Amino acid sequence: MSRAVTGDAAFSTSWANPKTRQRPRDAGHAAARADTPLLASLAVARLKPTERAGLPDRAFAYVDSKGRRRLPIHDAAHVRNALARFGQVDFEDDAARELARKRLLQAAKRFRIVPIGFITSEIQSAGSERRGRPLPSGFVTMLMTDIEGSTALVRRLGDGYGQLLDEVCVELRKAIDEAGGHEIEARADEFFAVFAAPRPAVDAAIAIQLALRDRVPRDGAEVRVRIGIHSGYPTSTADNYIGLDVNTASRICAVGHGGQIVVSDNTRESVKATSPAGVRFIALGDHRLRGLPDPVPLFQVGAKGLATRFPPLRITART
Fold first, then answer.
1. Residues 234-276 pLDDT 10s
2. Helix (H), strand (E), coil (C) string for the chain
3. Torsion of Cα atoms, 302 then 196 then 131 then 171, to 10°
4. Mean pLDDT of 110-135
5. Contact 303/278 with Cβ under 8 angstroms?
6. Each residue of 283-306: pLDDT tens digit?
7. What is the pTM of this model?
8. With bands split at pLDDT 50, 70 and 90, how would you rate the model's confidence at 122?
9. Structural domains of the chain, with CATH
10. pLDDT of the residue at 56
11. How far apart, in whole angstroms, are the C-alpha atoms of residue 74 and residue 234?
């Protein structure tokens, strides 16, 4: 599995070496501290005119209608610099801005850079998107839920399970919509949503668990939902997402317990770097998840009102 570039402009992610936790250095840049903002002012050498002229247009995130080229993205250092300076550029129109944003995020993906600081600067506009608007692309956060013990609930409630499922979906949709997320799929007792930034996804998960905790049981049947969250670069289609990062989110959801929120290191680091207030992360160890090539560090979300004690994760092997 790919590894995220770290250093002045990125933090270790779930693909970092689970044994050493070392963050490799890019030439000319010191390794970043975990509590340092991702996109602090970076000392990137200005391109000489001859160097700039020798670069193709594709080496820049933004080329305006007059052919002026801005935000070079030909190497990792300049991608980080472009992420930091994106909000300072005066784009010709929204379409030009969106095209530059996509090219910049594609470059970040190519160099394995987790754009945490870019998330911070974009969170206002990105978080306001709702269902019916274009889905977020690039570095996104995926939230998946699953009802624990659904088969037993079907046996117990019979035809009434359908109504219970509808009631649960109302709570899921309310929390996800209020946090600015996008509903992607709802299949039987499983739910999939995507967020442009990680903290809203965590907030939605907390809201879901608190709402279900306070819900009056139907016929004495308590509903408990397991939630898994992962941040990464899935491939987006017209109305869905595919790829290894989607599978990772699904596997993380599957190993948790009802009432529990389990997240990847990608999500944890992104939240810690942007908006950590009110949440904490409890280390659950590095685990091999079905179908994934490398161990994934997992964490339990802690917040006021959430349950804290759960059995071991529902996996057989741990590294």
1. 998 888 999 999 999 999 999 999 999 999 999 999 999 988 8
2. CCCCECECCECCCCCCCCCCCCCCCCCCCCCCCCCCCCCCCCCCCCCCHHHHHCCCHHHEEEECCCCCEEEECCCHHHHHHHHHHHHHCCCCCHHHHHHHHHHHHHHHHHCCECCHHHHHHHHHHHHCCCCCCCCCCCCEEEEEEEECCHHHHHHHHCCHHHHHHHHHHHHHHHHHHHCCCEEEEEECCEEEEEECCHHHHHHHHHHHHHHHHCCCCECCECCCEEEEEEEECCEECCCCEECHHHHHHHHHHHHCCCCCEEEEHHHHHHHHHHCCCCCEEEEEEEECCCCCCCCEEEEEEECCCCCCCCCCCCCCCEC
3. 0
4. 61
5. yes
6. 999 999 998 989 999 999 999 999
7. 0.62
8. low
9. 49-113 (no CATH), 140-302 (3.30.70.1230)
10. 93
11. 22
Return the minimum-mean-pLDDT range out of 51-60, 117-126, 169-178, 180-189. 117-126
